[in-house]
Specification:
mainly beta; globular
Length: 256
Amino acid sequence: AWEFSDAAKLTAGKHSVKFTLEGATSSNDLLTIDRSNVANNLWFTSEYAPGVGVSGASGDWSYNGGLYRGGRDNGEFGNFDGGVFWLGSVGRDFGDELGVKKALVRADYVYNEPDPDSDFTRPFENIGALVFTVDAGGWGVSGDLIAGDGILGQSDAFGATLLPWVSLTDRLQLAGRYGYLKSDDPNGIRFARYENVVARGRGDQYHELYAGLNYQIYGNKLKAQTGLTYANMRDRAGDGGAYDGVTWTTALRLSW
């Protein structure tokens, strides 16, 4: 990466593809233990892809764009045997006008060339997201609206996320999340990581509620997290994708 100024940073190689609310948030900075199932379905969960990106900020405006190569993931740079995809993102911070630390509104767009050999991507040709983040210091709320144009047998899908949080002390934080997913056709929504262990198949409408506590031992570099997730999947096809259950997860997150 080369940072020419605050307004221009060039990144080349395998790096994070930042779009949607949680997809653009480092896993170290997540307020929840894992990204939501909305991100799991509509963001590219490989997270890192080979390409060239340009990002920066000027005043209240910020942007991010890049051209990436798809293909089969081999654990390194990939085989470069898939289609290309590109990302364009622009946002503005209204924090000064609203009297808060941060009030960012951002629009993301991804065009993904259809290719069955692209492991780095989800099967959507066009993905658009409208993201907002409000940070008032001791409390905040974030969210996004995402729509994906399905390809290669994947149905069109829509998702929404709402993530409020409040600091109870200097170290203890309460975080909540609601996620909603809907596909036009049956079996267009996949399960999240832990639900996928006990539930099989897919559905077409998904609701998720999360409530958790974070204790920062050393900021986001060392923190303990615990949370309960309630999830409900509707399955119009009736082929094994229906689900209704609760998951409790606890983690110790370490980064440097």
